[in-house]
Amino acid sequence: MTNFTDLTGLAGIASAMAASVLLLPGIAGLSGPRLAALIGAVFLLALFPISGLPLAGYLRGATGDLSITTLVLLWCALLKPWNNCVAVDAKHRDALLIPIAAAALFLYPLALGIGAFDPYRMGYGDPLFVAALLLLALAAWFLRYSVIALCIALAALAWSLGWYESGNLWDYLLDPFVSIYALCAISIRAAKRLMGRPQGEPHQSSLPIA
Q1: DSSP letters of 161-204?
Q2: What angle do CA 99, 101, 104 make, to 5 degrees?
Q3: How do 49-50 and 53-54 pair as beta strands?
Q4: Segments forming the whole domain that contains residue 55
Q5: Number of structural domains the chain divides into
Q6: Helix, strand, coil shares of the chain as percentages rounded to 5?
Q7: pLDDT digits (tens, 9 = 90+) for 70-84
Q8: If you ran DSSP here, which 8-state letter would residue 205 be given?
Q9: Would residue 51 be called left, alpha or beta, if left means φ above 0 and alpha means ψ between -120 and 50 degrees?
Q10: Among 11, 116, 153, 155, which residue's beta carbon has the most beta carbons within 10 A?
Q11: Residues 210, 127 share a domain
């Protein structure tokens, strides 16, 4: 019998597949109802069983479960055509991307053995780590960076409920995909600034924070 963790894990991968539709060329020309129908069809197709296992299940076997942060950003992207849930100015983009990139650079190299300190162990309920996250969420809320506060709050809640198979809070906050996305987005924007791209030039993107 499929358990709750499997259901949400499959739904997360299906959401990623549905969000990838927004990157297709010419997608911006679709009307709201047609875009919604296309996204919904891809989402359902990802959950359709093939040889006893949904397509999303095959991908999940390779990627694992997506972090809560990734899921929040995916659903912001999916809902953006109808409800711009993320402020897209540079200040809000940096406020979200920079902490993700910094956390990834802090976590992954040290967790892979570079240095004697392993920050991954903090995710198993270290009181100082949990308190620091809650303070960061409160600060983000008061500064009106609602997406940061939402990501941290939902990740902490899911971790406290044992939502995923992992018992480590880091796995609810970060995954390689959102980490690579944040690092690439920051690097690309920095490169464009070095190349002298006008600051006022509009930038169109289907992603919620790019």
Answers
A1: HT-SS---HHHHH--HHHHHHHHHHHHHHHHHHHTT--TT----
A2: 105
A3: antiparallel
A4: 1-65
A5: 2
A6: 70, 0, 30
A7: 999 898 888 876 765
A8: -
A9: left
A10: 155
A11: yes
Residues 154 and 165 in one domain: yes
Q: What are 5-52's pLDDT values in tens digits?
A: 888 899 999 999 999 988 888 887 777 788 888 999 999 999 998 888
Last residue of a domain, one of 65, 92, 109: 65
Long-range Cβ pairs for the range 51-54 (8 Å, 24+): 54/10, 54/14
Task: Write the CB contacts of 209 (distance below 8 Å, at least 6 apart in sequence).
Answer: 73, 76, 86, 88, 92, 93, 96, 97, 147, 185
- Give the number of residues written for the chain: 210
Which tokens in the block code for residue 174?
């970060």
Asked if 79 and 15 sit in the same domain, the reply is: no
pLDDT in tens, 95-119: 888 999 999 999 999 988 787 788 9
Please, which residues bridge with residue 50 across strands?
53
Q: How many CA atoms lie within 13 A of 183 on its CB side?
A: 14
For tokens 């620091």, the residue is 132
Per-residue confidence band for 171, with pLDDT thresholds at 50, 70 and 90:
very high
Q: Which residue carries 């990623």 as its tokens?
A: 16
Residue 52 has a pLDDT of 82
By CB atoms closer than 10 A (0-12, 13-18, 19+), residue 181 is buried
Q: Do 95 and 197 lie in a common domain?
A: yes
Q: Quote the tokens at residue 120.
A: 């991954």
